Amino acid sequence: MSVGEWLITMLIMIIPIVNIVMLFVWGFGSPDKRRNYARASLIWMAISIVLIIIFYGVIFALFFSMRSY
Asked: What are the TM regions of this chain, as residue ranges (predicted)?
């Protein structure tokens, strides 16, 4: 891919909602040069979401356990 194509790709990644849709299109659509990048980004997003859910679950559990005393 040329530098210009990467600049357009990064510009698309800045736009909310569009970036997630395009990652799915590039990752699971027709073969594209960005396929591995899109799949890796989606994996990192999934890992981040799971870690955030665990983190907030622990915070809420600590808050409610301290509140009962």
From this structure: 6-29, 41-64
Q: List the Cα angle 63/68/69 in 5-degree steps.
A: 110
Residue 1 CA to residue 23 CA, distance in Å, equals: 17
- pLDDT, one tens digit per residue, over 37-59 is 999 999 999 999 999 999 999 99
Classify burial at 26, counting beta carbons within 10 Å of its beta carbon; exposed 0-12, middle 13-18, buried 19 or more: buried
Q: How many domains does the chain have?
A: 1
Residue 38: Cβ within 10 Å count: 20
Print the domain residue range for 28.
3-67
pLDDT digits (tens, 9 = 90+) for 4-26: 999 999 999 999 999 999 999 99
